């Protein structure tokens, strides 16, 4: 285990701690501008898409699985309308978002999925070339991204409904 950590580039730890801080911030109630609810989801989409492209390339199957995971999670998340209790103040044009640990959980899920895949690639493990591995990882990346996007759409909708 210590060998694994000792061979991990420093920038990976910086990303890890940045995600921890962002997740902690998300755990507290906050008041934000409506457009800012898309910053974190877009960042997470880019992070997960980079994970797909860096390992599996731009292939129809890799992108297809990623998009499938994204769309299924996006639709499911919008249907569940999570987060609940988001309110909009028309007076100051701000959303009040209740705190949740869910964003941290999903940020860590993306991070550790990418870390495990990076480890498998670096060690040239045979599993990286398996179809089921590629499909599973890409669906996970897409689904994690879809969760973040659905949260932002639900919050954005709260602002439009209130007007």
From TrEMBL:
The chain crosses the membrane at residues 6-25, 37-58, 64-82, 102-121, 133-154. The keyword Membrane applies. Pfam families: DUF6622. The keyword Transmembrane helix applies. Keywords: Membrane, Transmembrane, Transmembrane helix. This is DUF1453 domain-containing protein. It comes from Colwellia maritima. The lineage of its organism: Bacteria, Pseudomonadati, Pseudomonadota, Gammaproteobacteria, Alteromonadales.
């Amino acid at each position: 285990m210590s060998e694994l950590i000792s061979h991990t580039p420093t920038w990976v730890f910086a990303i890890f701690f940045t995600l921890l801080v962002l997740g902690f911030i998300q755990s507290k109630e906050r008041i934000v501008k409506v457009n800012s609810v898309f910053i974190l989801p877009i960042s997470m989409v880019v992070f997960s898409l980079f994970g797909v492209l860096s390992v599996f390339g731009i292939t129809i199957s890799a992108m297809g699985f990623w998009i499938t995971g994204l769309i299924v999670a996006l639709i499911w998340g919008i249907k569940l309308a999570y987060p609940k209790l988001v309110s909009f103040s028309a007076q100051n044009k701000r959303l009040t978002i209740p705190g949740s640990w869910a964003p941290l959980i999903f940020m860590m899920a993306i991070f550790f999925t990418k870390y495990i895949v990076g480890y498998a690639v670096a060690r040239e493990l045979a599993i990286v070339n398996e179809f089921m591995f590629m499909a599973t990882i890409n669906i996970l990346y897409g689904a994690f991204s879809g969760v973040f996007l659905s949260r932002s759409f639900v919050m954005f909708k709260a602002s439009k409904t209130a007007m």
